[in-house]
Amino acid sequence: MTIKVVRGNPTPEELAAALAVVRARAAAAAAEPSGARAPRDAWSDPARIAARRLPLPGQASWSRTYWPG
């Protein structure tokens, strides 16, 4: 892996800090097995909201917007 500074003149300490961050991110990405993610919380699942039909338009539809049908 080659890192090239294209603008500015970083000090050796700044360059070492940036390289440490890049290497830590690369190591974390390599250590994580592919497809092994934590299960999604039901509250964050968009299908929970889209599973029900929306209220039909009408005079009182605004009052039924957030209530289960």
Write the SSE topology.
Layout: H1 12-31, H2 46-50
Count of DSSP strands: 0
Question: What separation lies between the terminal Cα atoms?
Answer: 57 Å
User: What Rg, in angstroms, do the CA atoms define?
Assistant: 25 Å
| Helical segment count | 2
* pLDDT < 50 runs, ≥5 residues: none
Strand content: under 5%
- Summing up helix and strand content along with how strands pair, one would put the structural category as mainly alpha
Shape: elongated
Largest sheet: none
Topology as H/E string? HH
Helix residue percentage: 25-40%
Integer average pLDDT: 76
What's a concise summary of this model?
The protein is mainly alpha-helical and 69 residues long.
Labels describing this entry:
2 helices; mainly alpha; about 70 residues
What does this structure look like?
By secondary structure, this protein is mainly alpha-helical. 36% of the residues lie in helices and 0% in strands. The protein is built from two helices and no strands. It starts with 11 loop residues before the first helix and ends in a 19-residue tail after the last helix.
